[in-house]
Design goal:
By secondary structure, this protein is α+β, with helices and mostly antiparallel strands. The chain has a single domain, classed as endopeptidase fold (from Nostoc punctiforme), CATH 3.90.1720. It is 23% helix and 25% strand. The protein has 4 helices and 9 strands, in the order αββααβββββββα. Strands 3, 4, 5, 6, 7, 8 and 9 form a 7-stranded antiparallel sheet that branches. It has a two-stranded antiparallel ribbon with strand order 1-2. A hairpin with a 2-residue loop joins strand 6 and strand 7. Helix 1 crosses helix 2.
């Protein structure tokens, strides 16, 4: 299996949950929040999470990448507006399913994730409830991108059969905000 095939598998696994409702703190078929969906997907692919990752832990675990490098399988993070303290400084995650595109002078990208917003199913039809869905997201200064090593870990495990390559994802301390 190639990395591209693993990325397609992750997106397909998330896609199996289209329509599952958004539930804060949710991580199963009764409902997912944004990080709970990716916990489920990566766990199904063999990554062992030592604790319940939240978006902030996924953020700390991801290698930052520039807009020009963004590709399918990368993730987009939402950052708190300056001066607000409603969430962690990073509070939402979705996976990129296509390359960013420019429309009417603004950058957009197609993602899959879950949020308290209406999204679309795999055929582009708008869903009538909040939950797991595809979205077209505008890229702005409060969004950043990251790339996980999980796909590389899975590939190495498939090559060697050595379960040590399926690193246990552990929370990293987030000391400072990355520059956006």
């Amino acid at each position: 299996m190639t990395q591209k095939e693993l990325i397609k598998q992750a997106i397909a696994l998330a896609g199996q949950h289209i329509g599952v409702p958004y539930v804060r703190g949710g991580k199963d078929e009764n409902g997912f929040d944004c990080s709970g969906l990716w916990l489920r997907v990566f766990s199904q692919m063999g990554i062992d999470f030592a604790v319940r990752f939240r978006t902030v832990e996924f953020f700390a675990d991801a290698k930052p990448i520039a807009l020009e490098e963004v590709q399918e399988g990368d993730v987009m993070f939402w950052h708190e507006e300056p001066g607000k303290n409603e969430h962690n400084f990073v509070y939402h995650i979705e996976m990129i399913v296509d390359k960013p595109f420019l429309k009417e002078g603004k950058w957009f990208v197609k993602t899959i994730g879950t949020k308290k917003e209406f999204g679309f199913d795999g055929q582009g039809r708008q869903l009538d409830s909040y939950g797991v869905a595809y979205f077209i997201r505008e890229i702005n200064q409060r969004k950043s991108f990251g790339r996980f090593s999980y796909f590389d870990q899975i590939l190495e495990y498939q090559k060697t059969g050595d379960a040590q390559h399926l690193a246990v994802a552990k929370p990293q301390e987030v000391k400072t905000k990355r520059e956006l």
